[in-house]
Amino acid sequence: MQTIKFKNKPYLSNGYSIVGPLEGKGPLKDYFDYILKDDTLKEKTFEKSERKLLQDIIVGAIDKAGLRTGDIDFFFGGDLLNQIVSSSYTARELELPFIGLYSACATMAEALALAGIFVDNGLAKNVVAGTCTHFSSAERQYRFPLELGNQRPPTAQWTITGGGASIVSNTPSNVRLVAATFGRVTDFGVSDVNNMGAAMAPAACDTIIEHLKNMGRSPRDYDMIATGDLGKLGSEIFIDLMEHEKIVLGKNYCDCGCMIYDKTERVFMGGSGAGCSASVFNGYILSKLKKGEFKRVLLVSTGALMSTTTSQQGDTIPGIAHAVEFEYVDKSTAKKEVKGD
């Protein structure tokens, strides 16, 4: 099976999120830990801005959990820039043991899943999992220089400026990881880089079906099933694909890319980027979990695995999706379980 069930159910002690000015105007603005007023972060280049953004996110998550950098055993992370430099330079600055990951916009769930495996098997006590993106650095790497002011087609999404990080720990808290499903790479022949939602939707469908089958659950068992960044069109395609497999999703389904922006903002099909599910999960979703307003959540981060080279050579876009299941537990119950009572 593709699903790993955590025997000891490692805990998610806390999470931290930062978003840019545009994202901070959206409907989830009250759930983010910090909203940037200046998306340059006073750096000379957008790439250095993204690096500083991720560093602030990781430090924020560690501080919020009441830990020090020296308490962290491993940092699992990645980003969208070539050679995941934002993550590796962050690890350099913080002097953390680093395991670099790349699943494009599915990196947050991948990082959480691997962090859960390490803690669940006693290989670590505290692991930080995080990622981010920056609109301006991603735009000029994957599309066009900002100065050109190119028009976007209606199917395009908006790479968010922002991200999030979680502390996965063996210390009891009221949110724990139940299981993780690692997705397969799917490719339905989509080659339009301005329609990534369509490329990623089949991967989300495949991973969620596998997770539900392996866990013996139905969509009704979750308070929220959240995909990463399919956007409006990708979400519609995903829902159709699920219904084709005789699985009907209810109002508990949402997409982080559709949630993060207000309908009046000109972001076309919604948000995208590795920081999309990272910021929404560590902001809005985790807040609801910690309060017990959500009892069970399935986070399914989605990614398009193309590069600028493959796109320019006309290759199709492979998709990937990783899923992590979380559940709320009363903190006193968690402490009793640790003591063996």
- List SSEs in N-to-C order: EEEHEHEHEHEEEHEHEHEHEHEH
**Domain count:** 1
Oligomer state equals single chain
The level of helicity is: 25-40%
Q: Mean of residue pLDDT?
A: 95
**Going across the major beta sheet, what is the strand order?**
1-9-14-13-10-11
- How far apart the termini lie comes to 32 Å
Taking all Cα atoms into account, the compactness measure Rg is: 18 Å
- CATH topology call: Peroxisomal Thiolase, Chain A, domain 1
Low-confidence residue ranges = none
Largest pleated sheet: 6 strands, mixed
Verbal overview:
There is one protein chain. The protein has 341 residues and is α/β, with parallel strands linked by helices. The protein has a single domain (1-335), classed as 3-Layer(aba) Sandwich (Peroxisomal Thiolase, Chain A, domain 1). The protein has helices spanning 46-64, 85-94, 107-120, 135-142, 196-215, 231-244, 256-259, 274-290, 308-312, 331-339, and strands at 3-5, 11-19, 34-35, 74-78, 98-100, 126-133, 158-159, 162-169, 175-181, 224-227, 253-255, 271-272, 296-304, 319-328. Helix 1 crosses helix 2 and helix 5 (196-215) crosses helix 6 (231-244). It is globular and about 60 Å long. It starts with a strand and ends with a helix.
Keywords:
single chain; 341 residues; alpha/beta; Peroxisomal Thiolase, Chain A, domain 1; six-stranded mixed sheet; 10 helices; 35% helix; 22% strand; globular
Chain-wise SSE layout:
Elements: E1 3-5, E2 11-19, E3 34-35, H1 46-64, E4 74-78, H2 85-94, E5 98-100, H3 107-120, E6 126-133, H4 135-142, E7 158-159, E8 162-169, E9 175-181, H5 196-215, E10 224-227, H6 231-244, E11 253-255, H7 256-259, E12 271-272, H8 274-290, E13 296-304, H9 308-312, E14 319-328, H10 331-339
Parallel strand pairs: 2-3, 4-5, 4-6, 7-12, 10-11, 10-13
Antiparallel strand pairs: 1-9, 2-8, 6-8, 9-14, 13-14
Helix pairs in contact: 1-2, 5-6
